[in-house]
Amino acid sequence: MAIKLIVGLGNPGAEYEATRHNAGFWLVDHLARDGQIVLRHDSKFHGLCGRVKIAGQDVWLLQPQTFMNRSGLAVVALAQFYKILPDEILVVHDELDIAPGLVKLKQGGGNGGHNGLKDIQAHLSTPSFWRLRLGIGHPGNKNEVANFVLKPPRKEEQELIDDAILKSLAVLPKIIQGQTGPAMSLLHTDESKKREHKPAP
């Protein structure tokens, strides 16, 4: 199944622009720049959106402007309007359970407490959409998570996240064309190599 909609998750407003929770927005910004388009606000889709060509296919880009915990409103509005099925949707989001610099692709599964995923799942009535999970790391204490995701990454973390975004962009044509197995191999093999080549303490 080809991907027809890429949703980047984040919070609207300048005060959130550089925060970890906006990693999904960052990747979609790259796609808009590469496709030489400007994402424009569409009130019926509750977000910034535009259409680009990736791997020869027309793909919608969407950044919900509803705040994270109501992201599903924007996703379901655009998906229903253009008759896009849940398994034709790729949601790009920050992931606490993955270290900065790593990225994972999966379809379905739980939401890991991520409010954006939780709301999308509720609005679509299924968890079967695709997720591109950009690692941001974990603060170590569950009580610090809300504060952690709403702060900018440290400089070295930002560099790693930027690398992961570039790696994701290189693999994205395969994901768009439905070649998710090879895409996962490329993304996840890179992760195991990093573990293998970790310098000794």
UniProtKB/TrEMBL annotation:
The record marks N11 as: Discriminates between blocked and unblocked aminoacyl-tRNA. Residues 188-201 have a biased composition (Basic and acidic residues). It is found in: Cytoplasm. Keywords: Cytoplasm, Hydrolase, RNA-binding, tRNA-binding. The keyword Protein biosynthesis does not apply. TRNA binds at Y16, F67, N69, N115. The record marks D94 as: Stabilizes the basic form of H active site to accept a proton. The keyword Nuclease does not apply. It catalyses: an N-acyl-L-alpha-aminoacyl-tRNA + H2O = an N-acyl-L-amino acid + a tRNA + H(+). Residues 182-201 are annotated as: Disordered. It is an enzyme of class 3 (hydrolase). GO terms for molecular function: peptidyl-tRNA hydrolase activity. Its EC number is 3.1.1.29. The active site is at H21. It comes from the Bacteria. NCBIfam families: pth. Belongs to the PTH family. Monomer. PANTHER family: PEPTIDYL-TRNA HYDROLASE. This is Peptidyl-tRNA hydrolase. The gene is pth.
